[in-house]
Amino acid sequence: MGNITLKKVNKSFGETQVIPAIDLTIEDGEFVVFVGPSGCGKSTLLRLIAGLEDTTSGTIEIDGRDVTGEAPAKRGLAMVFQSYALYPHMTVRNNIAFPLKMAKLDAALIDKKVTDAARVLNLTSYLDRRPGQLSGGQRQRVAIGRAIVREPSAFLFDEPLSNLDASLRGTMRLEISELHQQLKTTMVYVTHDQVEAMTMADKIVVLNAGNIEQVGSPLELYNKPDNLFVAGFIGSPRMNFATGAVSAPFNAHTIGFRPEHTRLSGESGSWKGTVGVAEHLGSDTFLHVHVDGIGMVTVRTSGDVAVHHGDTVFLTPDADRIHRFDAKGLAIR
Amino acid sequence: MARAVSTRRTVFFTVAAWIVALIIFFPILYTIITSFKSETEAIQGFNIIPSGTFQSYIDVQTQKDYFKPFMNSVFLSVGSTFLALLISVPAAWSMAFSPTKRTKDILMWMLSTKMMPAVAVLMPIYLIFRDFGLLDSRIGLMFMLMMINLPIVIWMLYTYFREIPGEILEAARMDGASMWGEIWYVLTPMAVPGIASTMLLNIILAWNEAFWTLRLTTTDAAPLTAFIASFSSPQGLFWAKLSAASTLAIAPILIMGWFSQKQLVRGLTFGAVK
Amino acid sequence: MATQNTRALARLMLAPSVGLLLIWMIVPLAMTLYFSFQNYNLLNPTNVSFAGLFNYQYFYSDPAFFQSIWNTMLLVGGVLLITVVGGVALALLIDQPMWGQGIVRILVISPFFVMPPVAALVWKNMIMHPGYGVFADISRFLGLQPIDWFSQWPLFSIVIIVAWQWLPFATLILLTALQSLDGEQKEAAEMDGANFLNRFIYLTVPHLARSITVVILIQTIFLLGVYAEILVTTNGGPGYASTNLPFLIYRTALLGYDVGGASAGGIIAVILANIVAFFLMRAVGKNLDK
């Protein structure tokens, strides 16, 4: 089991409030991603759940048990750190075995569990190496191995992929997702990368300046962002925004439309603009079009569009895909 | 990436560097050579091939009882180092892992005590030692050496401990290690290399200390610094013996020094250059 | 909670060091300060009286005082000049590609590990001795009159010995700093058309500047206290020609048995050292913030 419930959890460092009272429920077996720009408090929130930081007020419950004052090890959670935090003086085997040794398990049982974990994570042939002799991806897997042998009620990941290169990041993303499918254990994952959030999460928690901006499934957030922040943060390339004379006909302070929901035409459309940069990716083309009254608008079109710098084009947003926001930046539905 | 360097350039720098290095090393080399000469040979002009006699080494022991000051040096340097570590490991530990707002000030203040010129406190220390009967006692001198190196030891340990990443400690805590488990299984193994190099540097510094060891001892507690200094009084020709005694006095520390090059930089610059 | 216990424990662990150093700093220094205002001679220990500024006046009016200050400055300055210039040159040389670099390094740093009495006696007897020293042998080989170093150039001779001891330190630290210079920066400068001299002036020197400062300051602290080298070679002479401030204080204290006078000298030495220490602490403190 792995229900995690936060009730009015608040964290301050001295005078500075990092996290104002937050309520959040994480269901058993869910893959929850905390996402937000750096400094938004997502790591602090994770560390509060882990018990590595003391809450200033509020309660944290795991499976209905109040763990607010409990030591990290007693909470039955496992954590994978950004730097992996492997013990440099221990072999891979001993690294993975460490939590079991601390739990005073029988040596034979420890050995079996370590061997099993190593097999799952393809680490069998590295068991007698030290972390210093491993590649970044292998270290990452050792850190995960150390977490899974404890059979925790939930896994906590603190930006685990940020030290890996792009292609390895893609691979590890898949591996972690597969692991979740296999184990069906609650996972709480912190990242600043909205792609990781969209691809892995059952539920995304978007944080900004310590506040929860929106909670929902990836597609809910994509289709129905509650506010300007979420609208701008989720989705790549970023949503275009327009205000003033452009948004007035829509009865909104601000309107937003995604690059992939904007049609391009050579002859006619709502707005006329000049192409600045055209990025040809093969599969898609990203056009950065300068439109009077709006500014730079990004348009995503098919890969075979032959438009170049300086061309005049016309843009039309999909009428049913326009997001409307009021003066406070909240969505008008 | 590194470029292929022309052989000619390498040869040039090799020759130049070796010549300079040998000139700098020459006094030490010549001392070792002279230690294998007889006393008459030693003053017969420049000669780098000794007859190979061990007589001077034997004389140093039989005539001057070399072994006694040698053991005093070992006792003083090793003893003062252990004493210093005993006091500084907890201090450096607490400053590295539970820093407060005042940690930086405390560190700077500790360093500042090292700036006090020894000679400025010669009189009070001498009088205190005299009144407590500590003159020419190994215990008193060991305490002195411990005190003068304490700031360096604390600083070095602090810089080493601070490099142990906090996430590792948090990982251990998540893994269920108790405070002692954390110290025993994670911190100690990671701190041992730093403690070892601190120990090495401190032994070197204590071994070579040549103010208090000369001023606070006469015979019983006199270490090698005082023993060698006693050769300065002109009482006949003794160069082969001086060389033999010197070679014995510097050899162990020279070898330790070679192994501690990196730590030396760090320790003596208080972590300012790594 | 646990954090409070940890904090209390941390203080407890720090206490012995702080306590010892506090006593170590305050007690002797306070005694020195007190003695410096007393008439106190060990030959006549029962007759102690308040002296006011007499000891300072006495020290100040002693011609040896100014000579010793001047000698101290010459000694420190001379050694610094040799070690810094020589250290930069040596570090640059050792940093070049060569065979046996490790051994060259070991040979060059070795003098630092030689205890001061040994260094001084080896130089005095085997290198600089006017009759049997290697320098004398070289002079005779060249048909020159051998120099009696310690009578003709006493202070300079000591500068050479001390510089020999500290050159390895400067070299080692500057070499370490040199090796931390980013290789890509050098390549970028080469691409920008900088020749060796330009690269040295615009890249290497600024990069070394901080390390050179550290070398100067730390060496100064140690050089202000040079003692054993003088004791075993010239014993401060001829006259006061090679007497520095520490040696003068030692003479006053343990040869003249004048506790008050030596203490006044000690206070002057503290003031001198503190001026240097002030700058050193700033240099080190800046590094701590990183």
UniProtKB/TrEMBL annotation, chain A:
Its main location: membrane. The keyword Lyase does not apply. Keywords: ATP-binding, Cell inner membrane, Cell membrane, Membrane, Nucleotide-binding, Transport. Residues 4-234 form the ABC transporter domain. CDD domains: ABC_MalK_N. InterPro entries: AAA+_ATPase (IPR003593), ABC_transporter-like_ATP-bd (IPR003439), ABC_transporter-like_CS (IPR017871), ABC_transpr_MalK-like (IPR015855), ABC_transpr_MalK/UgpC-like (IPR047641), Mo/tungstate-bd_C_term_dom (IPR008995), NA-bd_OB-fold (IPR012340), P-loop_NTPase (IPR027417). It comes from the Bacteria. GO terms for cellular component: ATP-binding cassette (ABC) transporter complex, substrate-binding subunit-containing; maltose transport complex. It is found in: Cell inner membrane. It is a peripheral membrane protein. PANTHER family: MALTODEXTRIN IMPORT ATP-BINDING PROTEIN MSMX (PTHR43875), MALTOSE_MALTODEXTRIN IMPORT ATP-BINDING PROTEIN MALK (PTHR43875:SF3). Belongs to the ABC transporter superfamily. This is Sugar ABC transporter ATP-binding protein.
From TrEMBL, chain B:
InterPro entries: BP-dep_ABC_trans_perm, MetI-like, MetI-like_sf. Keywords: Cell membrane, Membrane, Transmembrane, Transmembrane helix, Transport. Pfam families: BPD_transp_1. Its main location: membrane. It is a multi-pass membrane protein. It is found in: Cell membrane. GO terms for cellular component: plasma membrane. Residues 70-260 form the ABC transmembrane type-1 domain. Gene3D superfamilies: MetI-like. GO terms for biological process: transmembrane transport. The chain crosses the membrane at residues 12-33, 74-94, 106-129, 141-161, 182-207, 238-259. Belongs to the binding-protein-dependent transport system permease family. This is Sugar ABC transporter permease. It comes from Pararhizobium antarcticum.
TrEMBL record, chain C:
GO terms for cellular component: plasma membrane. It is a multi-pass membrane protein. InterPro entries: ABC_transporter_permease, MetI-like, MetI-like_sf. Residues 69-280 form the ABC transmembrane type-1 domain. It holds the Pfam family BPD_transp_1. Its main location: membrane. It is found in: Cell membrane. The chain crosses the membrane at residues 12-37, 69-94, 106-123, 155-178, 208-228, 248-281. Keywords: Cell membrane, Membrane, Transmembrane, Transmembrane helix, Transport. It comes from the Bacteria. One of its GO terms (biological process) is transmembrane transport. Belongs to the binding-protein-dependent transport system permease family. This is Sugar ABC transporter permease. It comes from Pararhizobium antarcticum.
